[in-house]
Amino acid sequence: MIHFKQIPTIILCMAGAWIWTADAQSLGSITHIPENMIESKWEHDSEGNRMLNYYNNDYCDYYLFRINDKSYTLKPGKNTVFTIRKDSNFDSQFKTAGSYYRFKGAFPKDFDIRTPYLLPVHNGEYVRWKTDRRERMKTMNFGLAPGDTVYACRLGTACEVNDSRSLLIYHQDHSFAAYMMMDECFILPGETVYPGMPVGIAGLSGVSVSFFFLDENKFGNSVPSTGSIYTHFIPYFSTSDGTLQPEEGLTYVAAAPDEIVMAEMTKREKKRYLKQFKDKPAYTEAEKPAPVETASELEGIEWLQDPVSEEEKNEIARFIGKEMDYFSSIGMKPYLDITIYNFEDPDAAKSFILEKFDRKPDGRTFGSIYFPKWKTGVVIGYDSRKPELNVDAINYLVNSNLYRNLSANVTISQWLSRGLSIFFENCGIDKDGALVHNLSARQRERLREYLNGKTPDIATFTDMSNAGFMKFQTESKGIAYVMAHVTISAIIENGHNNVITALLNRTREQKPSEIIEKTYPGGIAALEKDISDLIK
Fold it and tell me: How confident is the model at residue 175, as a pLDDT?
């Protein structure tokens, strides 16, 4: 314990270190308070009054606890906790010795244990949970497969945390949800998170979520010397069997009725949610948009650091517009939500990527990189003398965003994403404005040589994990991308677009091979024959 004998200029960082071990992706690490998150300053206002201001640089409330004295809730931003009027002889209690502690959160406001939450999986999916033994406090480990999408359980705001793969959400009633053990987190601090919104990718052990609040009953004249100052609880979740507290080890089907999803939203948030995050039905003929001819007609792209010519933008818009028309025609409702930076100087691009995304790109002097977490793409080495290369690089970024938005239930399989992307990259637009696909002789030859007369094993290929697909791509010197392209070509060119729709709408419980077997006429064997015929 430290005692202040003068006016305090900083607050002690006592919380977190003694409660849990602050390892990465642990509850202790998430509730640990980052350095300089709370700052205190004596300042004067325009009238000469002296004020003690605390600056909360986080996006959730903090509780400033002073032993044997008044404590304070610090809202995000500036908090004036004490004022000495000009010419006043009043002696501030802050000049006396005191011990201070700070904690994330505030005491609950209208807390109701029966407030309904969503399960952290897509609507209609099956899931079960078990207690995460790695955490001292009650934490639910949900049995998602590695690579599955994790969904938000309740509306709230993302707080600052020490680990970029973890997520801490602060709810309206001052409770928290901590999402841990993820491979990737899509959400940045300060973002509003909506129920049912994708927030990350599950790790090897699924995703662990802990629900808790700062408990006033655990404070007296001092903080507890052992245990936690938070109370952890099991929420009531919306399931196909109704809203209930799920039992450990039992399987439940996630349900996301609108009255629960939008219960805590403002009118503006409801409108935004319905537009951006709710599953989008297919276009009707009356709703189908007019063909895109110019960049101004293609919504959802923001151009920054922008040397791209209008001619190039219009070419990209016409191509992507045709691609989006294809997806709308097979029962999807595609949309874009991407920011694109274009750098002519490769070194400037790399410095930007390192500063903004904390990523160190390779030595390339030309190319494009998509950052899904930020919905942002960067073109390295844009060259006004090479419009075709520029267009290809930007099309890759836009497609990456489009396919991530299209995948309705689970993170899109790498083979499906790459296959669709390469398929449309090898399409042109004819004089009638229609897409025309070309599977090059070289790609056919490469796959023939790899198969060496054997029938392609499409079941094994399409059921590969994303990591397995990328490993296969490396070990086979690029044949995985070719196989993906040819597989998509066989499906689309034979007119079986319903297979693409079904693959994009698959649930976590379904394997891609099972969907192909059920939806492709003649099943897997017929698709394998059509692929063999296509590359002859």
Answer: 96
> Are the CB atoms for 368 and 399 separated by under 8 Å?
no
Contact call for residues 458 and 416 (beta carbons, < 8 A) = no
| Contact between residue 431 and residue 523 where contact means Cβ atoms under 8 Å apart | no
**0.70 cut: is pTM over it?**
no
Average pLDDT over residues 72-89: 84
Of 124, 195, 199, 202, the C-alpha closest to 156 is: 195
> Are 147 and 38 contacting, i.e. CB atoms less than 8 angstroms apart?
no
Q: How many helices (DSSP H) and strands (DSSP E) are in the chain?
A: 14, 28
Tokens at 376, concatenated: 């942002």
User: Quick count: other Cβ atoms within 10 Å of Cβ 206?
Assistant: 25
Residues 73/174, Cβ–Cβ less than 8 Å: no
Band (288; pLDDT cuts 50, 70, 90) = low
Structure tokens belonging to residue 134: 């790695």
Q: How far apart are CA 240 and CA 243, in angstroms?
A: 8
Rounded CA-CA distance 328/534 in Å is 26
Instruction: Identify each DSSP E strand in 89-197 by its residue range.
Output: 100-104, 116-118, 126-127, 129-131, 140-142, 149-151, 156-158, 167-170, 175-180, 182-185, 192-193
Q: What is the pLDDT of residue 287?
A: 54
How many Å apart are CA 161 and CA 28, to the nearest integer? 10
Nearest to 399 by CA among 367, 421, 366: 421
- C-alpha 527/C-alpha 518 separation (Å) is 12
Average pLDDT over residues 130-155: 90
Mean pLDDT of 178-193: 90
Tell me how crowded residue 335 is: count the other CB atoms within 10 A of its CB. 16
Closest CA to 314 of 322, 202, 87, 458: 322
Sequence-ordered strand ranges (E) for 171-300:
175-180, 182-185, 192-193, 198-202, 207-214, 230-232, 236-239, 242-244, 252-253
Dihedral of alpha carbons 66, 67, 69, 70, sign:
positive
What is the per-residue pLDDT across 88-128, written as a single tens digit (0 to 9) for each?
Answer: 766 555 555 456 788 999 999 889 999 999 999 988 888 99
pLDDT of residue 491: 94
Enumerate residues 6+ apart whose C-beta is below 8 A from 119.
Answer: 125, 127, 142, 151, 153, 237, 238, 239, 246, 252, 254
Can you list the domains of the chain with their CATH numbers? 27-104 (no CATH), 116-265 (2.70.70), 298-406 (no CATH), 407-536 (no CATH)
Q: Determine whether 113 is exposed, middle or buried from the number of CB atoms within 10 Å of its CB (0-12, 13-18, 19+).
A: exposed
pLDDT in tens, 55-78: 999 999 999 887 766 788 999 999
